[in-house]
What does this fold into?
Amino acid sequence: MSRNDHHDSLETRLKADGFSVIDLGFLDTSHVIAAYLVDVGSQLALIETGPSTCLDNLERGITAAGYDLRDVNRIIVTHIHLDHSGAAGVIARKYPNVRVSVHPVGAPHLIEPERLVRSAARIYGDDMDRLWGEIAGVPEDRVDLLRDGETLAVGKRSLRIAFTPGHASHHAVIFDEQSRTLFAGDTGGIRMPGSDFVAAPIPPPEFDPEAWEGSIATMRALAPARIALTHFGVYEDPAWHLDQVMPRVRELVAMGEAAGDEISDTTAMTRRFDAFQRRKIGDAATDLMMRRLNLANPDVLAAMGLERYLSKRGEGKA
Ligand SMILES: [Zn+2]
It folds into this structure.
């Protein structure tokens, strides 16, 4: 029994509040990447797009929820990592009515994704296409820049924006004031149905524990009643959940510090990270659970993020 075994009734309540959780079925695996459809009255908003490889699933999921992707006229992405916004350009090309809101530091990469693609290719190599599919630019005149602390009036809703660095420097969360639902992206951590384990995604190059701590305080101050995670799902214990994130981040930093010279051995650190998570998750660490976690938050990225952070810190740059 975990803290999140009441999904059916939660889904009904979400629906009543105008939210639909779309499971993007990333690489044929459920509960890895979510997008959130928000009914704002006369229009629809979409929080996160997922990658282009999930576009068919996104369209099908929106249809199953009783809507149509062509009626979405605003997309808001928490950040520009490909699992969150990789499909934005393809969607924008297909549906000329849609505008895309993003953190100003992320915007240039959404408009001209070449640099983002190059740096992702250094990590994913030949797997780029299988994981992410097409990565197209969003026309500049259809990109809106988010501002920290602003409240966006979207249809009948008020969506408050808060900048929340830590996982990435250009990360933003979205808070629906009416239902007090917080769309927390990756700074809100990762949690999978079936376990109470909250993972901290710490990829290179911008993982920043000090900034992250401030972002957790920012999210706590919003006093959410629910937290909606991109990886994966909606949970009704947001204060408890948010309290898990920084201890996890600190444990990972401590693991990196304890690794000594092994920190630069990505394979060894990847194994350490996997073992750490399995130990924490305990009996719930089934193959499927570990696959979901590793797709949402690849072990190898954690190993690389930790090394990058500790070497920057050693040089006095973090
Ligand atoms: Zn992510």
